[in-house]
Specification:
about 325 residues; alpha/beta; 3 domains
Length: about 325
């Protein structure tokens, strides 16, 4: 009994257990450290991808150009933008609606706010609403997406406040109709025939309804200004509307009309990036053609490979 009691109270078994725990903990820490080193090395290798360095250089270059051009525009040296007839006619169209006592109809496309053309259309709506508030004209904007309705209301309200005419904001004039494409088209077409707006703006993403809208507006004698980046719908707008913003003109409309330095500087930086990319493409095509015509010139192949690498190829 005493011998058994003495055996249980001996410190050596507990010391052995403690030493085993310490050794096991140490081995676990070493394995964890080794795994961390391997993971860190793999992470370091994955972070630095040499094949993506040209893309990083393009991003840094365009970002630097944007910063410089915005700074220049803020210092009173904005870029010169060529005259766009469709945007020059915005004030004329709203003025005509004011004189005739008729509303202005604005359609910001049929897509949701995740479409960049809808965003550009809502931006244009804000500019039109500001001019209409200054001229005391009513702007009707039926939409087919609920989120577009909320964004359009906020844009019009901000424009009315900027024009000093907070009382001109009427949220009921910007209302949701339906998500159904031709149900929305039928509603807008009937509204156009009943109210006969003096000016119609179609700014956004359009599909089969483009010709229906523009033909209805043409039949009631309204001034029509359209803008879209959908190449399949541009011919219909060009044929039936008075003015049409084509592609890049549509996206540049906000900077053109507002004259804000930040937007003008950003627009100039984007154009500079496009010119640089096109220059690389043209030079690469010339070098590749020369390399085919002169296969003995090894430097042409090296130059072509360098150009491909600079373009991220």
């Amino acid at each position: 009994m005493d011998r058994a009691h003495h055996r249980l109270r001996s410190p050596w078994p507990w010391a052995a257990i403690l030493v085993g725990c310490v050794i096991g903990w140490g081995q676990g820490q070493r394995a964890h450290a080794d795994a961390g080193v391997v993971a860190g090395t793999a992470a370091a290798e994955s972070i630095l991808n040499e094949h993506r360095l040209p893309l990083a250089a393009w991003i840094v270059g365009i970002g630097a150009a944007t910063t410089i051009f915005v700074w220049r525009a803020r210092r009173g040296r904005p870029p010169t933008i060529r005259r766009i007839a469709a945007l020059e006619a915005v004030d004329e169209a709203i003025g005509r609606a004011t004189e005739m006592g008729r509303p202005v109809l604005f359609i910001p496309g049929i897509q949701d706010m995740d479409n960049i053309q809808t965003v550009a259309g809502v931006t244009m709506l804000g500019r039109v609403a500001k001019t209409a508030a200054e001229y005391d004209a009513a702007v009707e904007a039926p939409v087919c997406r609920s989120l577009v309705m909320e964004a359009a209301r906020e844009a019009v309200q901000a424009s009315c406040l900027a024009a000093g005419r907070a009382d001109a904001y009427q949220p009921d004039r910007i209302h949701y109709v339906t998500d159904e494409q031709f149900g929305y088209v039928a509603y807008v077409g009937g509204k156009m025939m009943r109210e006969k707006p003096a000016a119609c703006f179609y700014m956004g993403c359009f599909f089969a309804e483009s010709l229906i809208f523009s033909e209805n507006g043409n039949s009631i004698g309204a001034i029509q200004i359209a803008g879209t980046a959908e190449s399949s719908q541009l011919p219909f707008f060009v044929a039936a509307c008075d003015y049409t913003l084509i592609g890049e003109e549509f996206f540049a409309a906000s900077a053109y009309l507002s004259g804000e330095p930040d937007q003008l500087g950003t627009l100039q930086a984007q154009d500079s990036g496009k010119v640089a990319v096109m220059s690389f493409i043209v030079i690469g095509a010339v070098v590749a053609t020369a390399g085919v015509l002169m296969p003995s010139a090894a430097w042409l192949g090296e130059l072509g490979a360098l150009l491909r690498k600079a373009m991220g190829g």
